[in-house]
Amino acid sequence: MIAHLRIIRYPVDSKYSFHWQLKDEIIRIDTAPYHRQVSTYPRHMHIGKEDNVVEDSVTEIGNTVEENVKCVLEFVRSKVGK
Fold first, then answer.
1. DSSP string computed for 14-82
2. Residue 2 belongs to some domain of the structure
């Protein structure tokens, strides 16, 4: 199965959202200013379900758009392949 990213929003270098969904399972990585408890704030990930929020170990605010898109696609591909 090929990993298809459903939505990419990247209005400026420091704000982005990647959303992938297959049936009820989601992977979303974004910089929305919520979840201050996460050590990588404002970067965070929603894994599996909307309310499962964890640190973002995939993207970096200092990366280029292309670097972060590549990192996200590789991460989603690794999850889909399992």
1. TEEEEEEEETTEEEEEE--S--TTSTTTT-EEEEESTT-EEE--S--TTS-HHHHHHHHHHHHHHHHT-
2. no
